[in-house]
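Q: what sequence does this backbone want?
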Protein backbone atom coordinates (compact mmCIF):
# COMPACT_ATOMS: atom_id res chain seq x y z
CA UNK A 1 0.00 0.00 0.00
CA UNK A 2 1.23 3.48 -0.81
CA UNK A 3 -0.05 6.98 -0.18
CA UNK A 4 -1.55 8.45 2.96
CA UNK A 5 -2.64 5.14 4.48
CA UNK A 6 0.72 3.43 3.95
CA UNK A 7 1.75 4.73 7.35
CA UNK A 8 -0.82 4.94 10.10
CA UNK A 9 -2.10 6.95 11.83
CA UNK A 10 -3.47 9.01 8.94
CA UNK A 11 -5.26 12.32 9.44
CA UNK A 12 -8.06 13.32 7.05
CA UNK A 13 -10.55 16.17 7.19
CA UNK A 14 -13.12 17.59 4.83
CA UNK A 15 -16.71 18.62 4.33
CA UNK A 16 -19.41 15.95 4.44
CA UNK A 17 -21.18 15.61 1.07
CA UNK A 18 -24.15 13.58 -0.16
CA UNK A 19 -23.22 10.12 -1.31
CA UNK A 20 -25.26 7.50 -3.11
CA UNK A 21 -27.87 7.42 -0.34
CA UNK A 22 -27.42 3.69 0.30
CA UNK A 23 -25.94 3.76 3.81
CA UNK A 24 -29.04 4.78 5.71
CA UNK A 25 -31.71 3.59 3.29
CA UNK A 26 -30.49 0.23 2.01
CA UNK A 27 -28.00 -0.83 4.62
CA UNK A 28 -29.34 0.79 7.78
CA UNK A 29 -25.79 1.96 8.45
CA UNK A 30 -25.49 5.70 7.72
CA UNK A 31 -22.24 6.98 6.27
CA UNK A 32 -20.64 10.39 5.98
CA UNK A 33 -18.94 10.85 2.64
CA UNK A 34 -15.84 12.84 1.86
CA UNK A 35 -15.85 14.81 -1.39
CA UNK A 36 -13.92 13.81 -4.48
CA UNK A 37 -11.60 16.74 -3.69
CA UNK A 38 -10.54 15.02 -0.46
CA UNK A 39 -9.90 11.78 -2.35
CA UNK A 40 -7.89 13.65 -4.99
CA UNK A 41 -5.85 15.51 -2.38
CA UNK A 42 -4.57 12.29 -0.83
CA UNK A 43 -1.21 11.47 -2.30
CA UNK A 44 -0.91 8.24 -4.25
CA UNK A 45 -3.04 5.16 -3.83
CA UNK A 46 -5.04 5.48 -0.64
CA UNK A 47 -5.23 1.73 -0.25
CA UNK A 48 -8.69 0.24 -0.74
CA UNK A 49 -10.23 -1.53 2.19
CA UNK A 50 -11.97 -1.17 5.51
CA UNK A 51 -10.28 0.85 8.24
CA UNK A 52 -11.02 1.88 11.81
CA UNK A 53 -10.26 4.96 13.84
CA UNK A 54 -11.76 8.00 15.49
CA UNK A 55 -13.94 10.79 14.15
CA UNK A 56 -15.38 14.15 15.15
CA UNK A 57 -18.07 16.17 13.38
CA UNK A 58 -17.79 19.94 13.86
CA UNK A 59 -17.72 20.41 17.65
CA UNK A 60 -19.04 16.94 18.53
CA UNK A 61 -17.27 14.65 20.97
CA UNK A 62 -14.88 12.05 19.58
CA UNK A 63 -16.51 8.84 18.35
CA UNK A 64 -15.25 5.53 17.03
CA UNK A 65 -15.55 5.03 13.28
CA UNK A 66 -15.24 2.52 10.46
CA UNK A 67 -14.25 3.77 7.00
CA UNK A 68 -14.55 2.17 3.58
CA UNK A 69 -12.21 3.32 0.84
CA UNK A 70 -12.67 1.97 -2.63
CA UNK A 71 -15.05 1.04 -5.39
CA UNK A 72 -17.76 -0.80 -3.41
CA UNK A 73 -17.69 -3.91 -5.64
CA UNK A 74 -21.17 -5.05 -4.58
CA UNK A 75 -22.58 -1.85 -6.10
CA UNK A 76 -20.08 -1.76 -8.99
CA UNK A 77 -19.23 1.91 -8.40
CA UNK A 78 -17.45 3.71 -11.21
CA UNK A 79 -15.76 6.15 -8.84
CA UNK A 80 -13.71 5.59 -5.73
CA UNK A 81 -15.24 6.80 -2.47
CA UNK A 82 -14.32 7.39 1.17
CA UNK A 83 -17.31 6.61 3.36
CA UNK A 84 -17.18 6.94 7.13
CA UNK A 85 -19.63 5.28 9.50
CA UNK A 86 -19.37 7.23 12.75
CA UNK A 87 -20.36 4.80 15.51
CA UNK A 88 -22.90 7.08 17.15
CA UNK A 89 -26.60 7.79 16.68
CA UNK A 90 -26.93 11.36 15.40
CA UNK A 91 -30.35 13.02 15.49
CA UNK A 92 -29.90 14.71 12.09
CA UNK A 93 -27.86 14.46 8.92
CA UNK A 94 -24.74 16.60 8.97
CA UNK A 95 -24.13 17.41 5.31
CA UNK A 96 -21.87 20.45 5.01
CA UNK A 97 -20.23 19.81 8.40
CA UNK A 98 -16.52 19.35 8.84
CA UNK A 99 -15.56 15.72 9.46
CA UNK A 100 -12.15 14.97 10.94
CA UNK A 101 -10.90 11.39 11.17
CA UNK A 102 -7.78 9.72 12.43
CA UNK A 103 -7.34 6.39 10.67
CA UNK A 104 -5.64 4.04 13.11
CA UNK A 105 -5.81 0.58 11.60
CA UNK A 106 -6.84 -1.72 8.76
CA UNK A 107 -9.59 -4.31 9.20
CA UNK A 108 -9.75 -6.06 5.84
CA UNK A 109 -9.42 -5.59 2.08
CA UNK A 110 -12.38 -4.50 0.00
CA UNK A 111 -14.38 -7.43 -1.38
CA UNK A 112 -17.56 -8.31 -3.23
CA UNK A 113 -20.58 -10.06 -1.76
CA UNK A 114 -23.20 -12.31 -3.33
CA UNK A 115 -26.08 -10.72 -1.42
CA UNK A 116 -27.06 -7.54 0.38
CA UNK A 117 -27.54 -9.54 3.59
CA UNK A 118 -23.94 -10.78 3.40
CA UNK A 119 -22.69 -7.21 2.91
CA UNK A 120 -24.71 -5.94 5.88
CA UNK A 121 -23.49 -8.79 8.10
CA UNK A 122 -19.87 -8.06 7.15
CA UNK A 123 -20.27 -4.33 7.90
CA UNK A 124 -21.70 -5.18 11.33
CA UNK A 125 -18.70 -7.45 11.90
CA UNK A 126 -16.35 -4.60 10.85
CA UNK A 127 -18.08 -2.35 13.41
CA UNK A 128 -17.63 -4.98 16.14
CA UNK A 129 -13.93 -5.30 15.28
CA UNK A 130 -13.46 -1.51 15.29
CA UNK A 131 -15.17 -1.11 18.67
CA UNK A 132 -12.98 -3.83 20.17
CA UNK A 133 -9.70 -2.65 18.65
CA UNK A 134 -10.33 0.96 19.71
CA UNK A 135 -10.48 -0.18 23.34
CA UNK A 136 -6.84 -1.33 23.14
CA UNK A 137 -4.44 0.78 25.23
CA UNK A 138 -2.40 1.52 22.09
CA UNK A 139 -5.15 3.80 20.79
CA UNK A 140 -6.28 5.56 24.00
CA UNK A 141 -4.11 8.68 23.52
CA UNK A 142 -5.74 9.43 20.16
CA UNK A 143 -9.06 10.21 21.86
CA UNK A 144 -7.38 13.43 23.09
CA UNK A 145 -5.60 14.30 19.83
CA UNK A 146 -5.98 18.05 19.12
CA UNK A 147 -6.68 17.26 15.45
CA UNK A 148 -10.15 16.14 16.45
CA UNK A 149 -11.17 19.58 17.67
CA UNK A 150 -12.84 21.89 15.16
CA UNK A 151 -10.42 24.77 15.60
CA UNK A 152 -7.39 22.57 15.08
CA UNK A 153 -4.93 23.81 12.49
CA UNK A 154 -2.44 20.97 12.80
CA UNK A 155 -1.97 18.06 10.39
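A:
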Amino acid sequence: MTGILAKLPAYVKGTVVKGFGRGSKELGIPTANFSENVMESLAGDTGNGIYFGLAAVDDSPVHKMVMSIGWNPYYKNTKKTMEVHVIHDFENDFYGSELRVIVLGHIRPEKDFSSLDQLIAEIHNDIRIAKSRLEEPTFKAYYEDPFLTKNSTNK
